[in-house]
Design brief:
252 residues; alpha/beta; Rossmann fold; nine-stranded mixed sheet; two-stranded antiparallel sheet
Length: 252
């Protein structure tokens, strides 16, 4: 496959799949890797805001999956994801949709999916300085969709007892739980991600169950670095690496 200027091919961590990324654009980071490790996919799966397709590629070999749809509003980014799927000959298992996720109810029936994942923009509109590069701005700020849009669409698409997995920032936790309950998705599990033991968490992973009963549990935190700056054993495991074969860098 011919690459365009500034493009490169990387190996998807923990798999044998390849992914095309553009060095000038927003690439996947730890949040996508942690979310794909946290999620338990099965059946019909939808990834909202799929970017370059990293989460579908990471999820595919886990669980009994029929098909994964990855939805991405940015045409250039969706095209990268589609080319990565073609590069791996996975067109029958992963479908990339270039569209606004808010339009999904016009294209899919209600209660169609078993699992939905999302690594959404974290920043509220007007809550921080917006990056002038459109790709970075849409990826980080609630410009084309917001938290409620994602959870409302999730409620429509998920089957009863279907599961929702999301990665977000700890400072949005109250908004997340409140909005999930508004749309009948009960928070069931939360895992905090901490840079080091004793440091404040900078990410949260949350699992919700459509129509579930209140019973929130907290997983042990995911610690990224040891005190000496080396990666913890769990990070090596998540990335599918060993300490002896650890030529990888975490992209924040």
């Amino acid at each position: 496959m011919k690459l365009h200027e500034c493009e490169r091919i990387d190996i998807v961590p923990g798999t044998n799949y390849k992914i095309i990324q553009n060095r000038k654009n927003f690439s996947y980071g730890t949040d996508a890797i942690f979310l794909s490790n946290f999620a338990k996919p099965k059946g019909m799966v939808m990834d909202l805001g799929t970017g370059t397709g990293i989460i579908p590629l990471r999820l595919l070999d886990r669980g009994n999956i029929e098909v994964i749809y990855g939805v991405e509003i940015q045409k250039q980014v969706a095209n990268l994801a589609l080319r990565s799927i073609e590069l791996n000959n996975l067109q029958d298992k992963i479908k990339i949709l270039h569209m606004n996720l808010k339009d999904l109810p016009n294209h899919f029936g209600k209660c169609t999916f078993d699992v939905i994942t999302s690594n959404p923009p974290y920043m509220k509109a007007g809550g921080a300085i917006v990056n002038p590069e459109e790709n970075y701005a849409i990826s980080r700020h609630e410009i084309t969709c917001n938290l409620e849009d994602i959870i409302r669409v999730t409620n429509y698409l998920l089957k009863q007892q279907g599961k929702f997995y999301m990665v977000h920032r700890p400072d949005r936790l109250v908004d997340i739980i409140y909005t999930m309950r508004q749309y009948n998705i009960e928070p069931k599990m939360i895992r905090f991600v901490q840079p080091k033991i004793g440091k404040k968490p900078n990410l949260i992973l949350i699992e919700g169950l459509k129509g579930g009963k209140p019973d929130l549990k907290f997983h042990d935190p995911l610690i990224v670095y040891n005190d000496d700056g080396s990666y913890t054993d769990e990070i090596y495991e998540i990335y599918g690496m060993t300490k002896q074969n650890s030529q990888f860098t975490i992209h924040n």
